[in-house]
Amino acid sequence: MYQSGAIHHVTIGPLKPSTIYYYRCGKVGDEDFRLKTPPAQLPIEFVVIGDLGQTDWTKSTLSHIDALDYDLLLLPGDLSYADMYQPYWDTFGRLVEPQASTRPWMVTEGNHDMEANHQDDKIAFLAYNKRWLMPHEDSNSKSNLYYSFDVAGGAAHVVMLGSYAGSKQGSEQYAWLKNDLANVDRQRTSWLLVVLHTPWYNTNEAHQGEGEDMRVAMERLLYDARVDIVFAGHVHAYERFTRIYDNQADSRGPMYITIGDGGNREGLASNFIEDHKSSRLSVFRQASFGHGRLSIVNATSAVWRWHCNDDDNATVADEVWLESLASTKPTSLVAARRSRYP
Fold it and tell me: Active site residue: 136, 197, 207, 307, which one?
């Protein structure tokens, strides 16, 4: 019985980098919004939040990022937790409007964004595609479920993969990914990031093994392209792995980070498997709500910080410095610090 209001998509620009633009949506109301565009060169700062939802923990996470001066937000799926109840897409839009109106939000789909378990992506993600249209055609993707984009003048390339689109060899997404990564010039692009919903490495009891088919199909493509970091959501906890390739520590592989702890309504995934085969690769894990910040300082160095929401102020519970794999001699970590949290 639900029918949405009119949904408009408007392309504006070109816009100048590092500039604040004031704008109004049509002639409805008298509220002016302000958008800050990302910089044309490094440094650049990302906020990463997964499995956001619409809870008090969501509000806590959003309030913490409100205090930050960042450039762009990455969301690895499970936005509204609508689960086919359409009014939740409206309430979610109103909830995140104060943040999504001021910085670019780049998102990919999650299982709770799905309308039905349907073979046709256009039907399965009808509401998601209509409400969160990403610039997929700019990267020659035929689907809104996966795409890529450059930031900081091309110094960083971000690939948003679709965990619920075909991923095996012979699929459209596989062919697109192979071509997209082949066109990345690491002499020009110092940092290569990947964002998806279902983690490929996971020592939590929740959603164990669900990303395995996609990992087997695509991991080699990411490794050969020297992807620096892979962000995932889905598991409602935080976990950071060392650099990995094919279930082995490898200084030339991506660092895998699960950050599905934005504030969902299902609660935290508190049970980690102590004797899991990947436990030796897991550097830090904690079941807390929070958000992450990736600050790319220059062509060779970046720092990742995970902030948990256990205190009134977002607390840095995990921090690590990384070197870009575009450098001649890639190393897994430059320095790492653990907090007082277990």
Answer: 207
